[in-house]
UniProtKB/TrEMBL annotation:
This is Transport permease protein. One of its GO terms (molecular function) is ABC-type transporter activity. Keywords: Antibiotic resistance, Cell membrane, Membrane, Transmembrane, Transmembrane helix, Transport. It is a multi-pass membrane protein. It comes from Thermostaphylospora chromogena.
Length: 282
């Protein structure tokens, strides 16, 4: 064999570089999205439930707040955007992972060469896509039915971007961590949904803060949903809506700090509590 032939043979035997964890994570996200959109019942419920609530509440409470051009239905639109984001991230993610663990899917994935981080990248990217679709649909309803005005300033869209990203990231990480709480797939929906429903009622989604007792407001202020809704109200209600807040301000700096803290805290909880196997499997 000549030197040229030997070099050619060595080049042929050289293995191609392995895909990175990020590349595998994006591929996993595509798989997650395909599986989600194939489940028609899940798709219909995920996107239609907040719309139904918005239409019901927006139709019942259509008056404007005294002294402002802001209607109650517009406030509900902003609040339900926050609830919709948390629903697609915290609730859906927590339930789906708990089901995958109970069915043994996580155990099988953990035994493959795929980096474990790719699984979580896939989950979070798929949640980002679904949550963004949820926001677009709710905004369309708010604009066409309740005269919600979309921001014209780039600065307000920038606020929307970081509230959305921090909110989805923190809620998704909390959903991943909370997926370890249910003992089985059967109990996952009840265990994950109950605290989320309570948070919606005390976080200004359905009931204005001015009508809540102080101790409930203090509890809601510990969790991210209240701050997500407040951030989205600043984007879609503008300065005119600030008078409806308890402090008369949207407190965007505090919104950023709380949401970032929940993202970091959610990551720590994931690293310390996440399980790839069912209880009792070691």
């Amino acid at each position: 064999m000549t030197r040229v032939d030997a070099a050619t043979a060595g080049a042929v035997r050289r293995d191609p570089p392995l895909p990175s964890a990020l590349e595998l994570g994006m591929s996993r996200a595509a798989v997650e999205l395909r599986m989600f959109f194939r489940e028609r019942d899940q798709v219909i419920f995920t996107f239609s439930f907040p719309i139904v609530l918005l239409v019901l509440f927006g139709s019942i409470f259509a008056d404007a707040y005294e002294g402002t051009p802001i209607t109650v239905s517009q406030v509900y639109t902003a609040g339900l955007i926050g609830a919709g984001v948390m629903s697609t991230s915290f609730q859906n993610l927590g339930i789906s992972i708990a089901v995958e663990r109970d069915q043994g899917t996580l155990k099988r994935l953990a035994g493959t060469p795929m980096p474990r981080s790719s699984y979580f990248i896939g989950k979070i990217v798929s949640v980002l896509v679904i949550a963004l679709l949820e926001v677009v649909i709710l905004l369309a309803v708010g604009v066409f039915l309740y005269d919600l005005e979309l921001p014209a300033e780039a600065a307000r869209w920038a606020v929307f971007a970081w509230v959305f990203l921090l909110g989805v990231s923190g809620a998704a990480l909390l959903g991943i961590a909370a997926s370890s709480l249910p003992r089985s797939a059967r109990s996952a929906t009840a265990v994950i949904t109950m605290p989320f429903v309570v948070l919606q009622f005390i976080s200004g989604v359905f009931i204005p803060f001015t009508e809540l007792p102080g101790w409930l407001i203090d509890i809601a202020s510990l969790f991210p949903l209240k701050w997500m809704c407040q951030g989205f109200r600043s984007v879609f209600l503008g300065d005119a809506g600030a008078v409806l807040e308890i402090t008369g301000s949207y407190e965007l700096t505090r919104v950023a700090l709380v949401l970032a803290a929940w993202a970091v805290g959610g990551l720590i909880l994931c690293l310390t509590t996440f399980r790839w196997k069912r209880r009792g499997e070691g």
